[in-house]
Design a protein that fits this description.
Length: about 90
């Protein structure tokens, strides 16, 4: 997270790093999702939580922080800028 710019980064690190293919070390897959403004988190029960690091205090962002160390099941980005990330 970068406090000065009001960004929230979600960093995903895959499994499988350190193995070798054709004599070369293979790194684990990884990705970074960066949220710079208003986002919506839809919790397991279907309740939507508005998250905006530029307008809300850090305490209001705790639903997002609760996902720390959870695993991604999938991520889908659409042409209109919608991003849906599902967790295991």
């Amino acid at each position: 997270m970068t406090f000065g710019a009001f960004l929230i980064d979600i960093v995903a690190q895959g499994v499988g790093g350190g193995r070798r293919e054709s004599g070369r070390a293979v790194a684990a897959p990884s990705a970074v999702l960066r949220f710079e403004g208003e986002s919506q988190l839809i919790e397991l029960g279907g309740e939507a939580v508005l998250l905006d690091p530029e307008k809300q205090k850090w305490a209001a962002l705790t639903p997002l922080f609760a996902l720390r160390h959870d695993r991604f099941a999938s991520a889908l980005a659409t042409a209109d800028g919608h991003l849906e990330v599902s967790f295991i």
